[in-house]
Amino acid sequence: MGVLIYSALLISILVYFIGLFPFQVWSPNEAFYADASRRMLETGDYITPYYNGELRLEKPPLTYWFVVLGYKLFGVNEVGLRFMHTVLGLLLALVVFLLARLTGQSTRASTLAAIIILLSVPFFVNSHYASPEVPFSFFISLSLLLWQAYYRYKKFVFLLFAFLSSSLAMWVKGPAGFLLPAAVVSLYLLFTDPKELLKARYYILTVLSLAVGLWWHVYQLATHREAFLKVFFEENLKRVYSGGDPWYFYLVDTLASFLPYSFIFYLSLVWVLLRKRRELYFFFAWSLVILFIFSLVKQKIPVYTMPAYPAMAILTASFLDGQEWNRIKVWSSLAISSLLMLVSTFGVFYLSLPSYLLLFVVSAFLVSLKVPKLAPIYSILSFYLILLFGVLPWLEAYRPYKEVGEILKAQRASVYSVGHFLHSLPFYAGKEVNRRESPRPGSLVVFQWGTFSCKPIYTFRAYTGSESRLLKYILDVKRGKNFSDFGVCVAP
Q: TM segments (predicted)?
């Protein structure tokens, strides 16, 4: 089992970098970070993000800065766009490993926890996609790792950097970057060591952390007051009470989002309580606090609970590493791995992908026979390899954004958009695509068929839904749904 665990870790790291293949920018969400970061690099304004010439204050700037760093290393392209997110995903796995070791878990269990977080669906996807989710989860997890180090070794420097790490989380997604780790530590101490909560250093450092973490918010409040307050209300307050999802949304969503070990995670919670595994209580509190907080929020989005996943990975790995309840572990692992292998096999045939991709499924099946508890890891690896080598290249044929962008970039004329707006075009065109005004004579116009009258110099078909919902996007491409004809012309 040990050799297969370390082999799985090496394969996972390799697959992470394979995921950096230059697939085009995903629309609409990733396009915001791609273009706004490109503009930062061009203008030197790293404080206030602008997407397509429009003020964009939905998130603080740290995610954009990571993208800019990637651009400086690899150029303004898809690899540069996603490189730092992949690095942060791998560093998060290291943080999970260190957390597990710090709290007494074996090297094998700690390695398994790192693999579980690497291969959980939201982390794998968002580590290859420019968005705030992985940086946010990384800094929250780093903050809690540093707090654990302080609590065990009583060295103030660890506590100082724990608070500063939460400040960096605020640079990614605002006040939640402080509230989430603070809630986890507070609940844990409340039940295990309430006197620790009375120490003045926590409250002094809270002031420092908030001052460092909220500087961008103060700056934008002073310089773009009306726009900032509108966005801050919608992003941080309105979502708390506006939405219709049931309170148990995340309990159900976790079954899909924490694949391949979602069911075993729920078993691990029961095991921790029944066996009174005190060394795991911190991770128990961590996972449940975040799941509970976001269950109270009316508007529910699956990625919101990603900061709980590092703790969930450690609980799951510790449970799997033990010798108790082996029969249910084996049968649960075989059931989920069989399901994943069936889905992968069906996907190859349904999408008419090359049959050699099934070798990945066969390899996962052979591992399942040898070490059933590791079967989910190898089956999800085979699923991701089919995704990277089969599904995503197949999708690229239906994504004309780079080609259209090159046409727009080659002309000096200003560019307008009429009809459905293709969010990736400003990035690939390297300039603003005006969607607020009527096209001027002599300008280039990207128009949805039937929305503008002119003779096209180039025509193409494009998807009009959200590519961020990948499963729906794949099914729509297969069925030819939610596509529209577009053209590029010179405005008369």
A: 7-26, 79-100, 112-129, 178-193, 200-219, 247-273, 280-297, 340-369, 375-395
Domain boundaries, the chain: 2-321, 326-396, 401-490
- Burial of 189-216, coded b for 16+ CB within 10 Å and e otherwise, reads beeeeeeeeeeeebeebeeebbeebbeb
Exposure string over 114-147, b if 16+ CB within 10 A, otherwise e: bbbbbbbbbbbbbbbbbbbbbbbbbbbbbbbbbb
Beta strands 483-490 and 456-463, pairing class: antiparallel
Distance CA 234, CA 56 (A): 13
Residue 388: C-alpha distances to residues 10, 120, 153, 385 (Å):
17, 16, 43, 5
CA distance 282 to 191: 10
Distances from the Cα of 335 to the Cαs of 100, 113, 145, 261, 438, in angstroms? 27, 20, 33, 11, 57
Strands (E), 26-131: 50-51, 54-55
Nearest to 140 by CA among 106, 205, 192, 184: 184
Give the span between the Cα atoms of 338 and 371, in whole angstroms.
14
C-alpha pair distances (Å), 362 with each of 125, 236, 347, 392, 487: 23, 46, 15, 21, 45
Look at residues 413, 306, 417 and name the one whose alpha carbon lies nearest to residue 31: 417
CA distance 268 to 250: 17
Measured at the CA of 361, the angle between CA 357 and CA 363, to 5 degrees, comes to 110
With 0.90 as the threshold, say if the pTM is over it. yes
Scan for tokens 């095991």, then name that residue. 271
The tens digit of pLDDT for each residue in 410-461 reads 888 999 999 999 999 999 999 999 998 889 999 999 999 999 999 999 999 9
In angstroms, the CA 83 to CA 244 distance is 36
pLDDT in tens, 64-88: 999 999 999 999 999 999 999 999 9
CA–CA separation, 84 and 290 (whole Å)? 25
Task: Pull the structure tokens for residue 253.
Answer: 């969503």
Cβ atoms of 338 and 121 closer than 8 Å: no
Q: 417: helix, coil or strand?
A: strand
Are 469 and 451 spatial neighbours (Cβ–Cβ below 8 Å)?
no
CA 409 to the chain's CA centroid: 30
Report d(CA 57, CA 61) in Å as an integer: 9
List of long-range contacts for 192-200, beta carbons under 8 Å, 24+ apart: 192/281, 196/151
What radius of gyration do the chain's Cα atoms show?
Answer: 24
